[in-house]
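User: Hello, can you help with two protein structures?

Assistant: Certainly.
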Amino acid sequence: MGELAGRVAVVTGAGDGIGRGVARRFAAEGARVLVAELDPDGGARTARELADEFGAEALFVQTDVTDRTQVLGMVAAAVETWGSVDVLVNNAWGAGTVSRVETKTDDQLARGFAMGYYGPFWAMRAAFPHMKARGWGRVINMCSLNGVNAHMGTLEYNSAKEALRTLTRTAAREWAPAGVVVNAICPGAKSAAFRRMAAGHPEIEAAADRANPMGRLGDPETDIAPVAVFLASEGARYLTGNTLFVDGGAHINGVAWTPDLDGEQ
């Protein structure tokens, strides 16, 4: 029996990176996990891992979180399969480029907000009635130190993640009487999105490791996911509206972030 035995969890972006790490830890702790992922290969692979390695009940649902219908379908699939949704982790991200504010387009900002803000909003709104009916629920939103510190080059990401933190606090205040706690994690980890960015800007990865007080960015499964397990557990029942910086101390004094944006600083 684990910390999450019998709980039903939906994890978006669970095909890789932090989402995969969280899904694996949830499964290890006894949760039934719906793997919501856009990439069919990655999502199916994670679901197989959960079943094969942990004996968990796992379901893969291909989901584009920028599509409201698919987000609602994701939540409905969990309810249809297991009867409810106890834990929702909004983690998916796959938008954005590294470029200056003045070069950003309306489409880039719109896609960033669709993925980083509206997708979580739709999922939270769909899951809440099921949590309220049981008087118990956990929402964990993956936000970012990029937004808190206004890192250069990633406006759409920064803006959407800070909007998501505001949604987190507002929902926490409104949903507390229903027994639903809502918190945010700002992780410092080599997520799938970070690895994609670093592939085109390897100097950023090296700089990020050097700048971290612990000398490295975290591992999604062993550094970030255990905190998500706590927030999803009974132990977090009196903790709501908070942002947990799971980043090796990077938030304490901020992180120097000055990528070369088209040769300008």
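That covers the first. Now for the second protein you mentioned:
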Amino acid sequence: MSSEPSKSPPKSVTARALAVLAAFDVEHPLLTLSQLARRSGLPVATVYRLAGELEDGGFLDRNSSGRYGLGVRLWEMGVLTPIHGRLRETALPFLLNLQYDCRETVQLAVCDGAAAIYIEKLTSEMSVPVESRIGARIPLHATGIGKALLAFRPEAFTEVILAMPLKRFSPETITDRRVLTRQLAQIRQQGYAQSHQEYRLGSTSIAAPVLVGGTVKAAIGIISYSLREDLDQFAPALLHAAKGLAKRLAETEGTAYPSLSGLDQE
């Protein structure tokens, strides 16, 4: 679990309101007033006033126990983002077809700074760990989907990531930069990445980049929590889904909502 943020108190009203909203994350979807003040770095009195105004505007919601959560107005705004309206909705038919083929959990992620963030997930019949849920951030160097993103990012970006301390999440995590560099080269050659218990013991995955005009826009991954050794058999279907999504995104460049454009799905 992540530690409480440590930051200087924001000065402007806008910055303070944003600090209150930014206090929420995947691990902290509901917060008491005191928790909200501590995580935002603001006085309780200030947070009480801002939270009331944000609640009135629909940006925060308060449940019967007095805990705050993000409100429906933020959800309405969130679905207008390119990641939701353009990428996520466009990807869904390809993800559904892929999951039908493999019967495992299928995920879609994008690179965000030094991490990957899940923006869609179709689960198998097995329960999945909290680390894999939509909105969760995962390391680029220790996951299949993260490596698929990292391998096809610009060389300068990859060098920056490899220069950072590579955290060990399990005994299988690759933290040797030379080994990881060779692995990224292999991923670029074969077109997809693999990961075996590197982030979480008991899991294995394969993932492929979504390349539009040579730029990696996202990655699609298949992950199994039963230590399957035969996920490679789904590599052709995975690559087909990634290439199909890339083609669809290229065809609908400049369209905010490709899923509503009337073009036939492949």
